[in-house]
Amino acid sequence: MSSQDHPVSSLQDKIRSSLPYTLAVVIIGFISLWVRTLPSDAVFLPGGIVRFMTNDAWYHMRTLYVLLENYPNRMFYNPMTNYPYGSYIHFGPLFDQMIAITSFVLGMGNPSPQLVNTIAAYFPAVLGALTVIPVYYIGKYLGGRKTGLLAAILIALAPGHFLQRSLIGFTDHHVAESLFSTFFMMFFMLALISAKEKKLRFEDVFNKNFRVLKEPLLYSVIAGVMYSAYQLSWPGGSLFLLITLIYAIFQYIIDNFRNESSDYLGFTGIATFLVSVVLIFPFVHPDMGFSLYYYSWFHVVTALGTLAGFAALSFLEREFKRKQIKAYYFPLLILGAGILGLVIIKFASPSLYSLIIHAPTTIFMIQKGGPSTIEEVSSIFYYDKVFTLEKVFGNFTATGFFASLLGMLVLAANLFRKPKPQEVLVLIWSFLIFLAIYGQNRFAYYYSINVSILSAYLGGLLLGAVKWDMLEESLRTNMRSPQDIQGFLKSIRLGHVLAIFIIVVVLILPMYSTAMLYTKSAGSVPNPPWTEATFWLQTNTPDPGMDFNAIYEAPKDGELFDYPDTAYGVMSWWDYGHYIEFFGHRMPNANPFQAGVGGRRVSIEEENQPGAASFFTAQSEEEGNAVLEAIDPRPDKAGARYIMSDARMATDIFGAMPAWTLDTEGYYQTIWTGRGYETIPSTRYFNSMEARLHIFDGDGLKHYRMVHETEPYPIRPDEVWYKQVYNLVFGGNIPVIHTGYVKIFEYVKGANITGTASPNETVKISATILTGQGRTFEYTQSTTADSQGRYEFTVPYSTEGPIEGETQFDTAPVEPYIVSYGNTTKEVRVSEEAVLNGEEIKI
Asked: Taking the complete model, does pTM exceed 0.85, yes or no?
C-alpha cells in the first residue's frame, strides 16, 4: 500500500466510526419532531381550519401574508394597530422570510392560504427538531460523543418553554432564536478549537498561510452567518454579543495568566463579527437611531464594538507578553479600558450610553409595575413576589435544573486546572443565561439548551468513570459479525448497567414525562368566543377605510399617520390586540407588544397616560370618556369607537390593569366569612369602567351601548361569583347568571331626551335590552328635575334598529324607552341618527 492511500483509508475509518452516531442523531431528530407534532389535533381542525397556539403567531401570520402579497417587500410600519399611532414591526425578518420562501417553493410560486398555514404550523416543530444537531456537536466537543448523544436526547425531550415554543402551531420566532443562537455557539466553539489546535497566529494572516487559516476561517464565517441569522430573528440578539464578549475577557485573562497566545481567540472573534456586521447592516433603519428593539445603528455599533474589543484585547495581550508585564495587571487594564470607553460613549452619544447601561438590567433584573404582570417577562423564581421553584421544575425538571448547576460548578472547578476554551465558553454562556431566567422566565427556552448540555456533561463524566470508552472499543472491534455478540456482551460490566440506569431514571425519564404533559395541555388560540366576536366585528361594523394587506410608509418623526376620516380604534386589553387586527380587520388601541397600554412606568407621581390601563380602571364614565378622547390628539376624534371586554378582563386578569398605572390599592378588600378571611372585590373595583361594562352590562352609562355579546364560556374565577359578592356585600340586585364571554360596546354621542316634570322630582328612564343571545337585561337611569322642572337624559341605545353604513347591532331595546315620574309614564322612541349625532328629543 502506498503512502498516498493512507489519507483515504483514514477518512473511510473516520466516516465508518461516525456513521452510527450520525444515524443516532437523525433518529433523535425524528423523535424530537414526533414529540412536537403530538398536539396536531389542536391545530388542524375540521374543515381545513388551522389554529395557532399563541397570539403572537397570529401577528406573524399577519406580517407573513403581507410579505407574500408584496414580495419581496415586507411591512416595517403597521398603522392597523396601536391606533392612532401605529407600530413599527420589531419582529426580525428572517422567520417570516423562511416560511415565505418555503411556501413559494412548495406552492410552485403560488401557494394557497391552506398551504401557507400548514407550513407555518409545522415550521416551529421542524426548527425545534433541528436543534438536536448543534446541541449534539457542542456536547461532543465538550465531553465526547457519548455526551453529545445524551445532550441531543435531552434537548429532544426538554419540556417547558423550549418545548412549548417549538410545538406545532406555535408559529413564533422564539424557536428560531434558540436554533440559530445554538448554531452560533457551536460554530464559534469549533472555530476556537480549530484555531487553537493549529496554533494560529496573526502572522499566519499576514503571511497568508491558508493551510492554517482555512478551517478556522470557515468555521468563523459560518459562526458569523449564524449570529446574523439569530440577530435577524430577534432584534434583542445582542444578548449573545454580551455573552461572547464576557467570555472573551475571561479567556484572554486565563490565557495571559498561563502565558499562552490568544491569537486564536482574536482571529475567531474578529472574523465572526466582521461577517455579522456585513450581513446585518442592510437591515438597519437609520431613522430608528439607537434602539434595542428595532434594527438600528445600535446593532451595527455593538457588533463593531465587539469586533474592536477582540482586536484591542489581542493587541493588549501581545503587548503584555512583548514587554513582559505581570499578568495580574491585565484584568485591571481591561477594567480601566472598559470604564474609559463608557465615559467616551457617554459624552459622544448619550442615547447609546443609556441603552448600553440599561439593556443588561432589562434582561437580568426582575421587572416592576405593569411589566411584572407579563407572564413571560416575570422571574422564573418568583410568583406573586414569593420565591418558588415550581416554574423552574416545570421547565427543566428538578434533576435537570440541579444537574445544570452542578455542571457549572464542575466547569468552574476546571478553571483551576487547564481549562479548554470550549469549557470556559459553555460555563460563561450557561451562567449568563441562568441570570437571564432570573430576570425573565421567557429565557427558559434558551436555558433548556444549557440544561441539556450540562446534564449530558455530568452524564458523560459518569460514563467515563465506569470506563464506557472500553465498552465502545469492544463494540467497534468485536462486532464484526452476528457471531461476535456473545463476546461483546461479556465486556459489559455492572457499572455500565448502573450508569445507564441512573442516566435514564434521573435525567431522561423526568424530561420525557414532563414533556408529555406539555403536549397534552397544548391548545390553540383564540378561544371560540373571541373568534366569533372578532369576525362579527369585521362584518358588522363600518369599514375603517384601510387596505389591510398594503405596505404603508411610516409617518415622519413627530407626525401622526394620515388616517382616513373613517378610521377608528377598538379598545380592549393588550392581550387581545392581535385578534382584533387579524380576525376583525380593525385597529386595536393596545396590542401584545404593550403598545397603547398607557398608565405609568416609574412613579405614581407621573401623569397617568391615556390607554387601556387608564380607561378600564377609570372610576367614572366621565373619566373613561376623557381617556378615550385623549388617546387621539386630534380634538375632533375619539381614540376608540368600540370597546371589547371578556370575562377574564373582568375577573382573573383585572389586577394587571391597575398594576400598569402603579395605583393598585383599594380594588380588593379582605372580609371575614364563616370559612375564614376571604379577599373580595371592593367598591373601587365595581366603580371601574371594566366592571361597569362587563359585570353591569353598561347599565346607566350614557355613551356606551352593548352591540353584541357571545355565548358564555367557562372560566375561573367566573363572573357569577363577582355578582354574588356585589349583591351580598354591597346590596346589589343584579341577576346572578353567566352572560356573554366577550361583549362589544360602542362609544356614541347618545341621544338627548329632554322634558319637564315637577321641580326637584325624581325622573327615571328604562328599557329592556335584548341581546343576540336571547338574553335580556334592564337599562336604567335616574335624574332629578331642576328648579324649573326640566330634566335631561343622554341614552346610547336606538329603539329603531341599525342603519346602512353604521353598526349592524344585534343588541337593542325590545320596545321604546319608558320615562316615569310620579304617576306619569311616557314612551320615547329614539332613532339611530339621534344616537350617533347627539340629537335632542323633546318629550
From this structure: yes
